[in-house]
Specification:
2 copies of one chain form a homodimer.
Chain A: H1 16-35, E1 39-40, E2 46-48, H2 50-53, H3 58-64, E3 66-69, E4 75-78, H4 83-92, E5 101-105, E6 108-110, E7 122-131, H5 137-152, E8 160-166, H6 167-177, H7 182-193, H8 200-210, H9 213-217, H10 220-228, H11 238-241, H12 244-258, E9 264-266, E10 280-286, E11 294-300, E12 315-321, H13 322-331, E13 344-348, H14 353-365, E14 370-372, H15 379-389, E15 393-397, H16 399-404, E16 407-411, E17 417-420, H17 422-429
Parallel strand pairs in A: 1-5, 8-9, 13-14, 13-15
Antiparallel strand pairs in A: 2-4, 3-4, 5-7, 6-7, 7-12, 8-10, 10-11, 11-12, 15-16, 16-17
Helix pairs in contact in A: 1-5, 6-12, 7-8
């Protein structure tokens, strides 16, 4: 039986016309993050299981990782996210590195889950992290950088918004302001994290189930619902506004607006799943009604590097998947038309390969990208090949051209044809 | 217990100073292959097991693959090579694609084996393939391209040689010229493939073991030893020289020399392991006595696309690993000095972040890469950080500078310090 030509479920083949778009995304990403002084690093796609068990969300490790035993009986994981790896690298040179450390990577990540729009089993993700900054200068830099990335793709602020919350503020509200029991806090946090995946009524019912009967009696569910619907941070109660986590978040929002990052809004329901976030969290949201979803997110996770037995380092970082970005650009008509890199196609009449190769070498030495047709097909078919590949310039060479050293240069789009010496061909193509 | 900071065995972490070298290799590779009209594609790192069982060498699939069952009970492999994947992609669009098809990729590949110099469990590999060319124009193009890659890194022909053989010629010699039994042929082929890993005497003993007693009596072992030691293709016996596979190889060697690819030699012992090669095979060899080894190789494999149930396509391709290339460049002192991409480091006196961020935005808008120090450390420590990161230009900004709008620009290597307006800073850095 013939083998299937399909890729593995939930993963993508990149034919050259697809790969071009991916390269376009990656190049823009690199351009912007490097303009902020970030440097690229990388780590193996296989990691020991242990580094995920400590702090990644349970669901991911237990149900969604590609985990297996290697031939030497080590438990290994195809990385589902980059944060544990980058923490491992920083911990490995904790003393030698100088801070602030700005690192980025575009790793290939895998999660075992049901493929759906915007969420495949495999994707690439821009990971940007800044290490060694205690102040919210770090968050402000990353949120500005995210905004710059959107703008560099031609997006304007009618298309996206950046939502911000502070996990420390949420913790304060649940623990100190509402004084929920530890267990209720844990359950409420998990529930809020999933609230946009359910109807409001379901959420209210489930919220009641998270609380003890005493907590319910005191009307905590109602209080919490009011807080979670606040869009305006200044309307929170005065008690909450006294806490440092409120001030931090409020200052951040003000500074971002002043610096020209307009579309930043307070979202008290934003949790960002992962257990490791300790402070400000943020997320970019697509505002198109047909693609209303979170595209990327991140936050402060000061505790992760310390798990590797070194002094902890304050850290803020984010991850941004290629699939969600691609969908965003597509739905907002921001994808450019990309064509082949090849500058000229050489069609041969008869077998002139040795002469053609010599000429092609001259073109290449002048920085011109040349593809040669060696099929020996009819000239019309060779021109069709050039056109199908999207190469607009074709050099036609037969024995006659080799003798006279004058070569036909045809422009497919206009039909224009010239007879030129090799130097003039080079000039025409440069 | 603290988690280990080591990467998975046989795999590499790429700190920015390492990643820079990898990017340098990849960029050169891309530059040269694109100058020949090759276009980049990609495929998932996970593939169904079946596509390797058909034609990859037994040893690789049975002993060296990372194979496991996913949560849906599918047998999947972390790809050990790219050839089955690229054949799958071509087969998937067999009719729509136009030939010659020139494709390349730089995939991450994994093999479970004992890590050793030049051979890790994980590497990246440049894969270049040309589809749809029957004639040896295809092989000539790829061998010239390999030679161009070496030269683009500054290598000269005292450092490497390209060895060439024809699997069809070897088959002819064993099957028609020596008339060995099928079983003896198979064993002899496998033995020749490993002959450089053993002493000559061991090889002779093992060669005897491959033959039937009748074959031994006829002196086939001696005849084969003479053929295998031929360095000069023209010295082969007249009977062999009549065969088309000899002519093909001999023409190829002649044409390559005429076109300026000097260091190409005939090597009758070259087999290239994989079962799928059907014609010319080639390999680049490091001539440094301390790194005397094969660096990369490839050949013609006309049968692979056809395994996916479509009409076969003549194909020639090669793979070139990043580890062997890096070692080659290192041993021949061809690695350049690479430094950070960042153009300027901003050191702050006091907290001037808001003003500094505004200035940095102006620099970025002019294409300058700026890293800002937000640590609030003493100015001397901030200068040390800049120096450690390898950034030579430092802008020093305090409240005074913000007021006067004149900023100190210091060049660390010379100690030179200037007071400049932001526009003059931009001019100085561009």
């Amino acid at each position: 039986m013939a083998l299937s030509t399909k890729p593995y479920k939930g993963a993508r083949d990149f034919y050259p016309e697809d790969k071009r778009f991916q390269k376009f995304l990656f190049e823009k990403w690199r351009e912007i993050v490097e303009s902020y002084g970030y440097e690229e690093y990388d780590a193996p796609i296989l990691e020991p299981l242990e580094i995920y068990l400590a702090k990644t969300g349970d669901e991911i490790v237990k149900e969604q990782t590609y985990v297996f035993e290697d031939r030497g009986k080590r438990k290994v994981v195809i990385r589902p996210e980059m944060t544990p790896s980058v923490s491992r690298l920083v911990a490995g040179k904790r003393q030698e590195l100088s801070y602030p450390l700005r690192w980025y990577s575009i790793p290939n990540l895998w999660r075992y889950e049901r493929p759906q729009r915007g969420r495949l089993r495999e994707h690439w993700q821009l990971n940007v992290d800044i290490f060694g900054v205690q102040s919210s200068d770090a968050e402000i830099e990353l949120i500005s950088l995210i905004d710059d990335i959107f703008k560099s793709f031609g997006a304007d602020e009618s298309m996206y918004e950046i939502r911000v919350n502070n996990r420390a503020l949420t913790n304060y509200i649940l623990n100190d302001y509402l004084k929920l029991s530890k267990k209720s806090q844990h359950n409420v946090l998990k529930l809020i994290d999933r609230m946009h995946k359910m109807e409001r009524n379901t959420f209210i019912t489930k919220l009641d189930e998270c609380l003890t009967s005493k907590e319910k009696e005191k009307g905590f569910a109602e209080k919490l619902l009011v807080i979670l619907s606040s869009k305006d941070i200044s309307k929170l109660s005065e008690d909450i506004k006294k806490h440092s986590s409120y001030k931090e978040l409020n200052d951040l929002l003000k500074r971002l607006k002043r610096s020209g990052t307009e579309r930043v809004i307070f979202d008290p329901t934003l949790m960002r799943g992962f257990d490791y976030y300790t402070g400000i969290v943020f997320e970019a949201y697509d505002l198109d009604p047909n693609n209303n979803r979170s595209m990327m997110g991140g936050g402060r996770y000061d505790g992760l590097v310390g798990l590797f037995g070194v002094e902890p380092v304050p850290t803020v970082g984010f991850g941004w998947g290629d699939v969600t970005l691609y969908n965003f650009l597509q739905i907002h008509h921001l994808l450019p038309t990309l064509s082949t890199e090849t500058d000229v196609y050489v069609a041969q009449i008869g077998n002139t390969s040795e002469a053609v190769n010599g000429l092609a070498k001259k073109l290449r030495d002048s920085g011109i990208k040349v593809a040669i047709d060696y099929t020996g097909k009819k000239i019309g078919d060779q021109l069709k090949s050039a056109s199908k590949k999207g190469v607009d310039k074709v050099m036609i060479i037969g024995e006659n051209e080799v003798r006279t050293q004058k070569y036909k240069l045809k422009t497919l789009s206009s039909g224009k044809e010239e007879e030129l010496s090799i130097n003039d061909v080079i000039k025409a193509l440069q």
